[in-house]
Specification:
The structure holds two protein chains of two kinds. Chain A is an all-alpha fold. Chain A has 15 helices and no strands. Chain A has two domains: 78 residues, no CATH class; 207 residues, MetI-like fold (Orthogonal Bundle). In chain A, 73% of the residues lie in helices and 0% in strands. Chain B has a single domain, classed as MetI-like fold (Orthogonal Bundle). Classes of the chains: A mainly alpha, B mainly alpha. At the A-B interface, helix 1, helix 2, helix 5, helix 6 and helix 7 of A face helix 2, helix 3, helix 5, helix 6 and helix 7 of B.
Chain lengths: 299, 308
């Protein structure tokens, strides 16, 4: 093994004063590369695998060895964790699901409308507005959270889901506007022109021509909104202080703070439950995720 | 063409002779966005600037206090600590993360078998990394009895409480950020695919070795994407919050060693309801991020290479 690596090195990273080339046969190099990459993948994913295994172990075994072989199955961790807080964990899952669903709908509707205007319409102030929109992509939420909190608390919206949902209905996730603009620009203009000649107005062109063609961009938006909203902690921590309204991240955090340091098993169990939807979204939507970050590049 | 112009050019459509404008339709389509800009984003940016010059606790009306908040910042030792912690975190974790991303992207490039599997395995942590669950897991990995120490124990090294030790607590968060190198890696992979293979073939014919090819072909042609990733990841790292909050139980401890800027802002604003000062802190963060982005764009003229 080490022998192989030593021989492979000069080929891939030879310095400028060229040493005599050692040709390592292609199959060997390939084996070394795959062994290395698999090992790295295992190291990368080991913490997560260990967490899943630990969630199925009795508490006194979790920190006994670093291995991931299960001797016994402690499924009770899951039922214990599920019922450890004031409400069953399903309550928080439902809260998160409501918020996520509403945010997805909000982003799909509002961002696609804005994107259509930026990509296809000609209007006064377009350059300025587009630059502003790009600028807001980079705007940290921490800069606007204080006035936003003051506004929402005066509206009586603290401890409701509205402060989390309403911004999405107003196209404030500029990243998705940008993603959709880029996508619409790639669609042939002849399609719009043809529809226009047939007498279609902009609402019609948008609904009947553009929207059906931008399904991949809408899918990317859906999956990213799902994962980011599901994981979002900062705004949910600030706006949801009533345990009844807790979403999964806030509930999980209160779990950690409230648990006496011994019920790790059930804590890991609920951590696994909280990551499961993200993992499923990743499995289902991988193609759109990869495409989405490859073409616009964020996160 | 400078990077800045490139960014600006994104906003223009190539409309040669003036076409008829459709203002009415456009503003209708943009109505939600305009509302959002006014009430949710740009409005609050202006409002927090104004609030930054007040003393406000949410109960009594805001009271203007001139430059009092700025004075307070100058002598606020916890703020200075938070700035130090955040800068260290950004400057160490972003280059490491991008180096890992670029290195892996190079290894995964060009027709490797099992590419899709490796890409998924390396990308998954970026999706999970910002969650509370992973932060909870990190606490257990780097705890005194945690996974890392058990592994070290197997090879005969005595570990320590990585998270309870102020000297190492921040490093565990840096490791967490490097762990999420998958997202920039996918962007690099897409960029590498744009480089025509014939450049490498031509260079190989001329006798250039792999390292020269990397330096003379890959790096220059990939520089716009490296720049893009650098700008985004720096902005992103400045805003890290969840991991430090969960790992330190909301305190930024031990001894403020994980007191991220945003965490300190949260404490002032939402634990102490010191909204005026928190607004001033928010604006300082905005200025810092803007300054870093501007410096990045300025420096880009010297090292980012645009093909066209």
């Amino acid at each position: 093994m080490t022998d192989l690596q030593e021989r492979a090195v000069p080929v891939s990273t030879a310095g400028d004063p060229r040493p005599p080339r050692v040709r390592v046969p292609a199959p060997l190099r390939s084996i070394v590369k795959h062994t290395g990459l698999s090992l790295l993948a295992l190291i990368m994913l080991y913490p997560v695998i260990w967490m899943v295994v630990s969630s199925l172990r009795p508490n006194n075994e979790i920190f006994r060895s670093p291995g991931i072989v299960l001797d016994s199955l402690q499924v009770a961790n899951y039922s214990d964790g599920w019922n450890a807080l004031a409400a069953p964990f399903g309550h928080y899952l439902l809260n998160s699901a409501i918020v996520v669903l509403a945010c997805i709908i909000g982003n799909l509707v509002s961002c696609s409308m804005a994107a259509y205007a930026f990509a296809r319409l000609d209007f006064t102030g377009k350059k300025l507005f587009f630059a502003t929109m790009l600028g807001t992509i980079m705007l940290p939420i921490h800069v606007i959270i204080v006035p936003q909190y003051i506004l929402f608390s005066q509206l009586g919206w603290v401890n409701t889901f509205l402060p989390l949902i309403v911004p999405k209905l107003l196209a404030t996730d500029a990243f998705f506007v940008f993603l959709m603009v880029q996508f619409i620009r790639g669609l042939p203009r002849e399609l719009d022109e043809a529809a226009r000649i047939d007498g279609a107005g902009h609402p019609r062109i948008f609904l009947r021509v553009i929207l059906p063609l931008m399904l991949p961009a809408l899918a990317t938006t859906t999956i990213f909104t799902f994962i980011w909203t599901w994981n979002d902690f900062f705004s949910q921590l600030i706006y949801l202080t009533d345990p009844e309204m807790y979403t999964v991240p806030v509930a999980l955090r209160s779990f950690v703070d409230s648990t006496v340091a011994t019920s790790w098993g059930s804590m890991f169990a609920m951590s696994v439950v909280s990551l499961l939807p993200v993992f499923l979204a990743f499995l289902i939507g991988q193609r759109y995720l990869i495409k989405g970050i490859a073409t616009t590049g964020i996160k | 063409m400078s990077a800045l112009e490139k960014f600006q050019r994104l906003g223009t459509t190539r409309s040669g002779p003036r076409r008829k404008r459709d203002n009415k339709a456009a503003y209708l389509f943009l109505l939600p966005w305009f509302a959002g800009l006014t009430v949710i984003t740009a409005g609050p940016v202006v409002a927090s600037f104004v609030l930054g010059f007040t003393d406000y606790n949410l109960i009594q009306a805001p009271e203007f206090n001139g430059l009092e908040n700025v004075n307070r910042m100058l002598s606020d030792e916890r703020l200075h600590r938070a700035l130090g912690v955040t800068f260290l975190y950004v400057f160490v974790s972003v280059p490491l993360q991008l180096a890992a991303a670029l290195g892996l992207a190079m290894l995964l490039d060009r027709g490797l078998r099992g590419l899709a599997f490796y890409r998924s395995a390396f990308y998954l942590p970026s999706l999970l990394g910002s969650s509370v669950a992973i932060a909870v897991l990190w606490r257990q990995i780097f705890g005194a009895e945690g996974l890392l120490n058990q592994v070290l124990d197997v090879v005969g090294i005595t570990g320590r409480g990585w998270i309870s030790d102020p000297d190492t607590a921040l490093s565990t968060l840096i490791v967490l950020n490097v762990w999420t190198f998958g997202a920039p890696m996918v962007i690099f992979l897409a960029g590498l695919r744009q480089i025509p293979a014939m450049y490498y073939e031509a260079a190989a014919v001329d006798g250039a070795n792999r390292w020269t090819q990397f330096r003379r072909i890959t790096l220059p042609l990939l520089s716009p994407i490296i720049f893009f990733n650098l700008v985004l990841q720096i902005i992103h790292a400045f805003q890290s919050f969840t991991q430090a909050f969960v790992v330190s139980g909301g305190t930024g401890g031990p001894s403020d060693s994980t007191l991220f800027y945003t965490l300190y802002l949260y404490q002032r604003g939402f634990n102490n309801f010191d909204m005026g000062y928190a607004s001033a802190l928010a604006w300082l963060l905005l200025l810092i991020i803007a300054a870093f982005t501007a410096v990045n764009f300025w420096a880009a003229k010297r090292w980012v290479f645009y093909d066209d």
